Amino acid sequence: MKSKAFDNTQSKILFKRSCPLSGKEAPSVDYKNLNLLRRYITEKGKILPSRVTSVSSKKQKELTISIKRARFLALLPYVSN
Question: Could you tell me which of 24, 31, 66, 71 has the fewest CB atoms within 10 Å of its CB?
């Protein structure tokens, strides 16, 4: 049996964060919704990961496609100055 002095595995209380893009009142993920897309891009133009933004994997994929589409249409910059 392990001693508590050497046990470094502490029980952590995990809580589930809900996806801000899922639900009834959630905004639609679209390449034309630039205010929404800018929230999920860093100042340098990188797409923020879902572990930071707590977006579900399905919505993260939609978000990534929308950001790339907006970049291609020159609605969003690839990099900032």
Answer: 24
How far apart CA 6 and CA 33 sit, in angstroms, is 52
pTM of the model: 0.78
Is the per-residue pLDDT at 74 higher than 80? yes
Alpha-carbon distance values, 73 to 5, 10, 55, 56, 69 (Å): 58, 49, 24, 26, 6
Using CB atoms within 10 Å of the CB of residue 31, give its burial: 0 to 12 exposed, 13 to 18 middle, 19+ buried. Answer: middle
**Dist CA 38 CA 30 (whole Å):** 12
**Count of alpha carbons within 13 angstroms of residue 30, beta-carbon side:** 5
